[in-house]
């Protein structure tokens, strides 16, 4: 065994590491080196032995998870650690600190282990009725590129050399598709268009020649020209896309999309110079929304009315009208881009729309669920892990039938 400094049970900074090691023990995934590291920590003192026994008790772990109604993993960790740091900084005697901290760290570790077991590892978790659902993996980076010629390219099965060999102007950069056509200025006349389509159970990034970057959520697309016209840049999107536009006052950027107008899908448009915003324009959603995080944009509604938006505002399209309000839930609106599910007072129907798209599975309801959920869960978990956490509220239950999630009270 190599010499190393044992992990102290009082180390707030090492709480994540201890949780990781104990989780690995529970799931039998530790390497020999990690087993030695865990052994060193356990045998450091009697308190660690007692704490380890508690943390590896299945009933204790299950009860700890049930006590958290929102399962907000990233916030729970930060809150617990902040509390521990605050407690350490108070004017208590050293002896009193030593007595209190083991219990505080024990509580935080219990939560951390629960979080790691159910949200930090992609290995399927066999949890009661979710054994089959555990095989349903989260979305991955894949898309379909349809060229102006009609040729299609599966971007999850082609490598960078294949794209470059075709001399199409496409290449890869850290999992992102980069388009750099040989002609950078469009000529007068009809332009040819390429389309990047992201299916259910996927996400993708695209960077265009001007440097503007787009994050596409599941069931989304972006239609862009083979070259930008020298007086303007224009694209068309469907679904949900986060847009980061490079500023160019001589070549303004236009984003067209469809919004609901009394049951009809009609075209609307955004004009930008340089800004960042999230647009949710799924056709099956009742309302289209724009969350402006940087800059200023001009929005033209389906009825032709023009509205200006500023940083920190939210636009909702309802029956052809645009309603502007402060953007108070930016974290929730951008959660998908940052790898999270953020549910704030959300109905089960709103949640399952995201689940259906992200895990590429259909949903059926049997009974009405009159409850709104609050949760913050990483999007890299399996369907089983996500649904198990939601079930712990006691207000909803899930089963898998004919490759379809059945939702019941």
TrEMBL record:
Keyword Nuclease: no
FecR protein domain segment(s): 195-297
GO-annotated molecular function: sigma factor antagonist activity
Protein FecR C-terminal domain residues: 341-407
Transmembrane segments: 100-119
Keywords: Membrane, Transmembrane, Transmembrane helix
Name of the protein described by the UniProt record: DUF4974 domain-containing protein
């Amino acid at each position: 065994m190599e010499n190393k400094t044992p992990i102290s049970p009082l180390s707030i900074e090492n709480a994540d590491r201890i949780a990781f090691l104990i989780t690995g023990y529970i799931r039998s995934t530790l390497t020999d080196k990690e087993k030695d590291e865990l052994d060193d920590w356990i045998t450091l003192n009697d308190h660690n032995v007692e704490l380890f026994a508690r943390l590896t008790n299945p009933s204790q772990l299950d009860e700890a998870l049930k006590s958290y109604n929102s399962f907000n993993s990233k916030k729970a960790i930060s809150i617990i650690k902040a509390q521990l740091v605050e407690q350490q900084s108070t004017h208590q005697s050293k002896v009193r600190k030593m007595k209190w901290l083991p219990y505080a760290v024990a509580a935080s570790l219990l939560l951390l282990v629960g979080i790691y077991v159910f949200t930090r590892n992609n290995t399927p978790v066999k949890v009661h009725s979710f054994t089959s659902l555990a095989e349903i993996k989260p979305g991955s980076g894949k898309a379909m590129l349809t060229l102006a010629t009609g040729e299609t390219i599966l971007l999850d099965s082609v490598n960078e050399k294949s794209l470059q060999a075709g001399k199409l102007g496409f290449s890869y950069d850290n999992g992102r598709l980069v388009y750099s056509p040989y002609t950078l200025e469009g000529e007068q006349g009809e332009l040819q268009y390429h389309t990047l389509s992201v299916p259910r159970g996927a996400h993708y990034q695209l960077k265009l020649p001007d440097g503007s970057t787009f994050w596409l959520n599941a069931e989304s697309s972006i239609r862009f020209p083979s070259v930008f016209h020298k007086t303007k840049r224009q694209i068309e999107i469907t679904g949900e896309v986060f847009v980061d536009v490079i500023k160019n006052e001589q070549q303004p950027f236009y984003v067209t999309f469809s919004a609901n107008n009394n049951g009809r899908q009609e075209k609307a448009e955004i004009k930008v110079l340089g800004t960042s915003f999230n647009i949710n324009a799924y056709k099956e959603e009742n309302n289209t929304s724009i969350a402006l995080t940087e800059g200023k944009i001009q929005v033209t509604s389906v009825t032709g009315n023009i509205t200006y938006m500023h940083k920190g505002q939210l636009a909702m399209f309802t029956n052809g009208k645009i309603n502007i309000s402060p953007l108070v839930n930016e974290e929730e609106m951008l959660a998908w881009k940052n790898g999270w599910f953020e549910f704030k007072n959300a109905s089960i129907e709103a949640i399952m729309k995201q689940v259906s798209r992200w895990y590429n599975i259909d949903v059926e309801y049997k009974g009405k669920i009159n409850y709104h959920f609050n949760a913050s869960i990483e999007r890299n978990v399996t369907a089983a892990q996500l649904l198990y956490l939601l079930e712990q509220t006691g207000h909803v239950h899930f089963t898998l039938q004919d490759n379809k999630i059945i939702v019941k009270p």
